[in-house]
Write a structure and sequence with these properties.
By secondary structure, this protein is α/β, with parallel strands linked by helices. The chain contains 4 helices and 6 strands; from the N terminus they run αββαααββββ. The protein is flat, with a radius of gyration of 16 Å.
């Protein structure tokens, strides 16, 4: 489902630009930073998977132009079937990247834990935002 969501955004951007749309175009993503609950190898592995499925799965197609290979392997047969031009369509130039950040995600090997406190380090997705002309924090709810 995420693949077709990203693909539809790319097709919409192409159509809007073809129509000489003067409004800045971008996308808003829910990007909660993911941290392991403990220093155990299992928690670190789970944090990498959780980050891959919730953050990198949406950022990588937009910026590097591919899905993260570790998560494609994790999904196995459930990974999306990507057609020849899909990634080029998805990776349209962005005028802005909006980020919803309501909490962080602490991953452990048994269950996810939502936390309301923020770490002192910046979220890892900020390194990808430099490809957009602008980035902004947004809020879509309450």
């Amino acid at each position: 489902m995420a693949h077709h969501l990203l693909l539809s955004h790319g097709l919409a951007w192409q159509a809007l630009r073809a129509d000489d749309c003067a409004v800045p175009l971008g996308i808003v993503l829910n990007l909660a930073p993911v941290f392991p609950a403990t220093g155990s190898e299992a928690a670190r592995t789970q944090a990498r998977i959780d980050d891959g499925t919730s953050v990198r799965w949406y950022c990588h197609p937009l910026f590097p132009g591919c899905y993260p290979s570790d998560i494609v392997a994790h999904y196995g047969a459930d990974a999306p079937v990507v057609q020849a031009d899909d990634m080029q369509t998805i990776a349209q130039p962005l005028d802005l990247l909006g980020a919803n950040n309501h909490s962080r995600h602490v991953a452990c090997c048994t269950m996810p834990i939502a936390c309301d406190t923020w770490p002192s380090t910046p979220p890892p997705w900020l390194t990808h935002a430099s490809r957009a002309h602008a980035s902004m924090a947004t809020c879509s709810g309450v």
